[in-house]
Amino acid sequence: MARRIVIVGGGLMGLSAAFHLCRADSGARVTVLERDRVGAAASGASAAGVRAMGRDPAERVLALASLARWPELDRELEAPTGYRRGGGLRVALDDETWAAAPAWVAEQREAGVPVELVDAAGARALAPGLALSCRGGAHCAIDGQAGAMDTVRAFATAARRLGARVEEGVGTRGLVLERGHVVAVERFDGAREACDVAIVAAGAWSAALLSGVGVSLPLETRALQMLLTDAAPAALRPVVGAFDHRLSLKQLDGGGYLIGGGWPARITEQAANRYEVLDESVKGSLETARAVYAPLAGRVVAERWAGLEAFTPDDVPVLGPVPGLDGLLIAAGFCGHGFALTPAVGDLLARLATSQPATVGSSLTFRHFRGANVGM
């Protein structure tokens, strides 16, 4: 009998899981239920950075596994992601931060992340226009960027081509249990999708769904702001960040500068994915970006938006099975930096759902949180 897998959430993690499942088992019946449209929440609103540099040690192996695949991902998916490997550069803007940079770089190099220390001249050669206060930085040549919605569409297209049923505008009311095993996912319209395995990858809405079966996860929802400037001539190749500053800066193929870094927006109605961009966050983000990268002084904000993200207490995602419940996998709490991990996370979920050996990332479970529990 064909294995039935229902995935709750049509963001990147859910779509990647669907793609990997269909590719690994052409006979599997894979269904993705998306409450809005694919990529409508955090995945489509992402800064779309693809980095290994600066990762928590617990997720580095996932990042390195994913970055090894990104250069060939368009070929795998047979669809464009907008990926570009232009490197990543994190700069130090004062003597104290610069003095701490060598140890920061050495720790990552020891773990296999190819980070190099560059002096001020080297940093400016990589990113002409950096502030005069730049003392130097850390450069990771394998880092890069992609298009957020391009990547969402690529995974959705690939999953559908391989046989996944991706339903949009279909919300999920809850999970159905029988004797400690998830046997179905109940849709908002009351219909049930029978399953052997359910994968909850519903982003900021995961905790509410899981609470219905007694699973308590300490997820906090935050809205993260993004700014896009008007177009400028191509000038910036790497993704630029700064130690001790909220900044993620990249120039898109169309010429606009995409500015992120975790500046908050205000959630007005989480259930409806509604938010309000805050003037003070726009001002703070722009001032920080312009202080690091001088060419932004003449640019104006053309678009602004936010994405609702689920955060864990330790900023590391929760992946894999739930103790005490069979037939349930979770991919949640990516804390605003899950985009790059998409290939490895999808592969991991597919392996776990089909009982294949899975070691990369499979330890990112409930062990992180003393307060997380399953109460049946």
Describe the structure.
- The mean pLDDT is 94.
- It is globular and about 65 Å long.
- It has two domains: 4-67 and 148-219 and 313-374, 3-Layer(bba) Sandwich (FAD/NAD(P)-binding domain), CATH 3.50.50; 88-141 and 221-311, D-Amino Acid Oxidase, Chain A, domain 2.
- The protein has 376 residues and is α+β, with helices and mostly antiparallel strands.
- The protein has helices at residues 12-24, 42-45, 60-69, 73-77, 95-110, 120-126, 148-161, 206-211, 279-292, 342-353, and strands spanning 4-8, 29-34, 49-50, 88-92, 115-119, 136-140, 144-145, 165-168, 172-178, 181-187, 192-194, 197-200, 215-216, 220-229, 239-242, 248-251, 257-260, 264-269, 274-276, 301-311, 318-321, 328-332, 373-374.
- The strands form six sheets. The protein has a six-stranded mixed beta sheet with strand order 8-2-1-12-22-21.
Tell me the fraction of residues in β-strands, as a range.
25-35%
The coarse silhouette is globular
Put simply, the count of helices is 10
- Fraction of residues in helix: 25-40%
What is the name of the CATH architecture of the largest domain?
Answer: 3-Layer(bba) Sandwich
Which topology of the largest domain does CATH recognise? FAD/NAD(P)-binding domain
Main pleated-sheet profile: 6 strands, mixed
Distance between the termini: 29 Å
CATH class of the largest domain: Alpha Beta
From the alpha carbons, calculate the radius of gyration and give it in angstroms: 21 Å
Which regions are unreliable across 5 or more consecutive residues at pLDDT < 50? Answer: none
By CATH's scheme, which homologous superfamily of the largest domain applies? FAD/NAD(P)-binding domain
Overall pLDDT metric: 94
- How many distinct domains? 2
Helices and strands: which structural class? alpha+beta
